[in-house]
């Protein structure tokens, strides 16, 4: 006869419950610990105490879960789509529920449902714990409530009026009844409320706003603005406050107007919020050192706490940039005038003076409110040309006492950067240039000059100085934080790199230099792009947070955004904190504002992501319009994403992104090998891998949604074994090999095709 084991302590019971994939009952807990007879009564009391204290959760049927765990069957809202076209979801909460941080929920691909889902849709799903998050299997899509659609209004003879959505995730058109079109004409872009109650046929919509004609390329950015709910009209009160603003007298400010500070920006910049100056340090104790001044527009003087300007700036969070326009955070009366450091005009600034040694290490720094008068507005290309020995009329007189010292101080900062070894990814960007008619005139890789790096390093050093100052003063601060890469992502990265004979030692203390060594080894090889992309995707996303965890990518223990208060609300908050901490005036950070920094930080992190999505959407539509006339042409393309849906590609010539769907891989049946970031042919063993360059044909362009569909060249398709009557692909299943490659099946005459 076996006897009952000793009752485990509360910590052991909690750990057992937390480790289970789902809710667990008292009987299962007792069995796991060998608890029998009368001891079960004591176990029941312990479980009751743990549940009442909130240490564990209590589910249905007297079952227990990890505290805060989601029910195994939950209602979810689709919250985002990642770069691999995977859907992410969040639990639907009641209004009176605590807004605890939502766990990561990844929705598993399902051919019956996945194509019909978009952001905001609700699903009933079965959840399975995976690491710190969950995997969701869709049970059914829940009916949608009232919502809106942005799309193209068309009048189809014999069928009535329709709205064709601009969102590529919305597959169905909407019908518009007589009297519900708000005066729209065919080919107008419109915003409409979707009506409920229609069970059969197309859903109905009522147009509420006409944006403009689709033939006007400038409407492209309007689609992105409205689709992402970006505020683009300032309230009258905010406009009035901006217009009433006056120039600032010197007063108690430090007068720096005798120094030739200059602004350096792109040729198309209109707001100049930073000016810089450098000179050799005249302190004999700092031979070879430098004195650097970074002066930033004093936006906090004009945008005071809880004013109409402040409320609107906080709501917007940041400026949003499109090829044809900017949606600014502040009205132009400020952003392009009184807050812009224009040449030969007195402007108020919050400035930091820094002393660097010959190796770029900052010895000390001090902040002050000041007045400057910019000596020149220089564009990057002109600054670089002047340093390279080809000055123009503007930069020629500035070479010796302005430009040479800037590069000298930068050279010292670069030595400090090399010793710090921040993450050094190569992330090329494409620049879209528009003609006067709004059409794309040119698409070129954005130049990356040393002049850009000069400004970048000056700004980074000033940002670090701001964070350090606020920490020393024990002042609240909105930090720019970048967490360590997730261990689960690193495991996937390690497996992928090993397939390229590159090793990632996860046992070492994780630091950016570890990734830099891998990038150095891959430089010049055929795997360079794949390695670069894979390391980028393994990184965490930077965000704003009042709790400092450091900035992993920059290899900085503390970092904040200080240098762009015209276009980022985070920087304005940092300015207010510096004003309060330095005793520079009564317009510093308020107590009630400091108490809400967590909520504000989360909000501006979200508005930053919203801006990125909107800018990418607009660029995709501009590129689709640019590529429309080249349908049928062939291009070199680089694989930048591998999923079960197919290959995500970037055209080398233009930088346009498109999808090569799985159904267009005619020559074989392909399985997705997630660990190797590749698709592998079942019969041939042919492999399409992340970073590979392949030849493709542009098959289809949708200028409304910005989608490009690519396929293998026609010759390959005609010669492909399965091209003429290729059966449809259906669900995946896992192969019985250790590689755990997902394999697709097909159906033919009702029977499942099995591999030999």
Summarize the structure.
By secondary structure, the chain is α+β, with helices and mostly antiparallel strands. It has 6 domains: 10-66, Orthogonal Bundle (Arc Repressor Mutant, subunit A); 73-141, Nucleic acid-binding proteins (OB fold (Dihydrolipoamide Acetyltransferase, E2P)), CATH 2.40.50; 147-215, OB fold (Dihydrolipoamide Acetyltransferase, E2P) (Beta Barrel), CATH 2.40.50; 236-416 and 425-469 and 556-614, no CATH class; 484-539; 631-752, OB fold (Dihydrolipoamide Acetyltransferase, E2P). The chain is 28% helix and 28% strand.
How would you describe this protein?
- It is a single chain.
- The chain is built from 18 helices and 37 strands.
- Helices cover 28% and strands 28% of the residues.
- The protein folds into 6 domains: 10-66, Winged helix-like DNA-binding domain superfamily/Winged helix DNA-binding domain (Arc Repressor Mutant, subunit A, Orthogonal Bundle); 73-141, OB fold (Dihydrolipoamide Acetyltransferase, E2P) (Beta Barrel); 147-215, OB fold (Dihydrolipoamide Acetyltransferase, E2P); 236-416 and 425-469 and 556-614, no CATH class; 484-539; 631-752, OB fold (Dihydrolipoamide Acetyltransferase, E2P) (Beta Barrel), CATH 2.40.50.140.
- It has a 5-stranded mixed barrel with strand order 4-5-6-8-7.
- The protein has 756 residues and is an alpha+beta fold.
């Amino acid at each position: 006869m076996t006897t009952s084991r000793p009752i485990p302590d509360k910590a052991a019971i909690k750990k057992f419950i937390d480790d289970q994939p789902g809710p667990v009952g008292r009987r299962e807990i007792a069995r796991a610990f060998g608890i029998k007879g009368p001891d079960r009564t004591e176990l029941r009391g312990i479980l009751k105490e743990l549940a009442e204290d909130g240490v564990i959760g209590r589910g249905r049927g007297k079952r227990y879960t990890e505290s805060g765990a989601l029910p195994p069957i939950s209602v979810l809202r689709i919250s985002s789509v990642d770069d691999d076209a995977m859907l992410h979801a969040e639990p639907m909460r009641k209004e009176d529920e605590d807004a605890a941080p939502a766990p990561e929920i990844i929705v598993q691909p399902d051919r019956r449902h996945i194509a019909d889902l978009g952001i905001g849709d609700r699903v009933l799903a079965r959840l399975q714990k995976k690491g710190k998050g969950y995997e969701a299997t869709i049970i059914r899509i829940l009916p949608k409530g009232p919502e809106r659609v942005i799309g193209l209004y068309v009048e189809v003879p014999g069928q009535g009026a329709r709205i064709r959505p601009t969102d590529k995730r919305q597959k169905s058109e909407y019908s518009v009844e007589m009297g519900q079109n708000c005066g729209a004409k065919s080919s107008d872009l419109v915003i409409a409320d979707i009506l409920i109650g229609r069970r059969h046929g197309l859903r109905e919509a009522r147009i509420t706003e006409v944006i403009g004609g689709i033939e006007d390329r400038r409407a492209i950015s309007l689609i992105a603005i409205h689709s992402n709910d970006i505020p683009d009209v300032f309230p009258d009160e905010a406009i009035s406050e901006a217009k009433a603003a006056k120039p600032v007298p010197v007063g108690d400010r430090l007068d720096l107007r005798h120094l030739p500070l200059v602004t350096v920006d792109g040729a198309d910049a209109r707001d100049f919020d930073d000016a810089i100056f450098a000179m050799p340090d005249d302190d004999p104790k700092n031979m070879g050192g430098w004195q650097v001044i970074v002066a930033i527009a004093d936006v906090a003087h004009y945008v005071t706490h809880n004013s109409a300007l402040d409320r609107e700036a906080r709501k917007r969070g940041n400026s949003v940039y499109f090829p044809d326009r900017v949606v600014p955070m502040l009205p132009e009366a400020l952003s392009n005038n009184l807050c812009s450091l224009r040449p030969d005009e007195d402007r108020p600034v919050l400035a930091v003076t820094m002393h660097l040694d010959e190796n770029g290490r900052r010895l000390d720094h001090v902040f002050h409110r000041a007045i400057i008068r910019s000596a020149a507005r220089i564009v990057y290309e002109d600054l670089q040309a002047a340093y390279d020995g080809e000055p123009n009329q503007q930069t020629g007189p500035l070479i010796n006492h302005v430009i040479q010292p800037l590069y000298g101080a930068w050279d010292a900062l670069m030595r400090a950067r090399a010793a710090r070894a921040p993450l050094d990814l190569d992330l090329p960007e494409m620049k879209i240039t528009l003609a006067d008619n709004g059409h794309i005139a040119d698409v070129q890789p954005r130049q990356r000059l040393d002049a850009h790096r000069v400004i970048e390093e000056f700004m980074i050093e000033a940002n670090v100085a701001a964070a350090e100052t606020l920490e020393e003063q024990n002042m609240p601060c909105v930090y720019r934080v970048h967490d360590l890469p997730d261990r689960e992502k690193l495991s996937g990265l390690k497996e992928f790199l090993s397939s390229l004979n590159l090793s990632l030692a996860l046992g070492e203390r994780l630091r950016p230099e570890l990734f830099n060594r891998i990038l150095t080894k891959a430089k010049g090889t055929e795997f360079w792009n794949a390695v670069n992309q894979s390391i980028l995707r393994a990184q965490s996303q930077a965000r704003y947070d009042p709790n400092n965890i450091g900035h992993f990518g920059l290899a900085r223990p503390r970092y904040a955004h200080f240098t762009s208060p015209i276009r980022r609300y985070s920087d304005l908050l940092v300015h207010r904190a510096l004003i309060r901490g330095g005793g520079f005036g009564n317009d510093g950070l308020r107590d009630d504002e400091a108490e809400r920094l967590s909520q504000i930080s989360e909000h501006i992190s979200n508005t930053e992501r919203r801006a990125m999505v909107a800018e990418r959407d607009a660029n995709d539509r501009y590129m689709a319009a640019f590529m429309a006339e080249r349908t049928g042409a062939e291009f070199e393309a680089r694989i930048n994403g591998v999923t079960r849906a197919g290959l995500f590609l970037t055209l080398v010539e233009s930088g346009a992104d498109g999808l090569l769907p799985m159904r267009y891989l005619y020559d074989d049946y392909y399985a997705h090998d997630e660990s190797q970031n590749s698709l592998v042919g079942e019969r041939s063993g042919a492999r399409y891998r992340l970073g590979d360059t392949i030849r493709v044909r542009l098959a289809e362009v949708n200028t409304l949604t910005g989608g490009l569909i690519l396929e293998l060249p026609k010759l390959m398709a005609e010669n492909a074994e399965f091209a003429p009557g290729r059966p449809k692909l259906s669900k995946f299943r896992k192969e019985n090999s250790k590689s755990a490659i997902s394999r697709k099946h097909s159906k033919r005459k009702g029977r499942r095709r099995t591999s030999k």
